[in-house]
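We examine the record.
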Amino acid sequence: MKTKKQIEIKNFNNFNTSDKINTEKFYNFLPTENLESSLGVAVAKFPNTYEDTTEVELGIDNLDINSVCGVTYFKMYFPTSQNTQHRLLIYGDDNKVYINQLFSGSPILLWLFNLQFNSPPVSLSYKTDDTDSIILTSSDKMIVWHTNYSPYEIEDVPIITSMCMNDEVLFCTIKDPAFKIWYATNLDAENVGQVTPESGYISLEDDLGYCRKILTFDEDIYVFRDYGISKINYIKNDITVSQIYLSNTKIYTDTVSICGNVIMFMTKDGIYSFNGVKVTKTDIDIRNLLPDSNEHTAASSLGQKYYLALRLNFNDDKSILCETGSYINNALVVIDITDFSYQIIRGIDVKSLLPVKTEVFEKMLLTFNTMNDSKLGQIVENSSCFETSLPKYWVSSELSDSYHTKLFTKLSINASENVTFNLLYDDKNISFSTYKDGLNEFCFKILCKQIKLEISSNETDVCVKDVVLDYYEY
């Protein structure tokens, strides 16, 4: 028998470290230097006023709706009073649009000018002539609302799927025909769908597919297509289009989001970033968890973090929270683009995401497809889903580079109480649970060639660090 050796896990960050340990699968854990609790979800709350930061829920329960189908945030500045109002719009399954003025001291949601839409509206906030405005457009109508005026409706407008503005020109992708990009100068939404000296369309019929989303990034205009990215150059009605990127697999439109200094998006084979010149596939390896289709993915960004809601196949016999019933999505991947580390929150069926950033707070708001669909949620740092602790799981790949026979004898861990450690070997396993906070030690004899470590917990607040596995190699 040779001398005693050790396998040490001193860093659970499996992304950009030289001493990384290979991870086979994890969820509801945040793998940093330590293995810690992930983010979670709670009911969205907002400060009463600027001075009183006590947070309260909006009065959604008092509305005649069973499901929150969409949410929009915008702010308007009123020059006369020199006052900025932060507004939140809620769209319910009763097709009505409700409004709350944040920091007003009231959680009440009011029906906004009797507005109704057939589907959750697409929105664009913009400023022209020092006036804040918002466009709301859906499958049945377009509404334009300027500061100090009541909203007004514009008829006979194509069904718009996305909008952006650049140098006071409004650009839109439309549902049908989806190869056309409409534009209108002076942000005149009334001209969308009409060919005039101030408006018109660009027809993009090539191998990149339909136009799905348009956005302004670093003062340029990009169109995300089914299978690629196009760039639009517009100078006083002189328009040219260039192909920037051709994708081998379909781009999921609703995952396209500007995050920091890149645009993030997802295709059927992974997660990508685009800096305006080059598309780069990230090292975020969730391909073995991706199903054949993910048509209901959604994403948004806040600060340097990219939040991606999607469906993953975890390939186990567990049913976590929303998975106990019917669901569309079951996971939220949160990516820090500074180092492309990430965490996976399993068990929540997110429909849409909306970042809200004010002088007082910033939040990522969530709506849901199935379970909790009557609530407006927000991302929080408590590793729970509406006060239910998220079950946590992490499993390593094989821990040894050598396939020689080994005698494993001791497991030492610095961890929270009630964390379960499972050693997997030769279709067998042996389990231990920590009995105190701090150093826990377990002695045993396991003779095998390879071994994996599985860590799990149902506690809300968990931390694991300094894992050491003693063995002798023959």
Summary: Residues 40-155+247-389 form one domain. The radius of gyration is 26 Å.
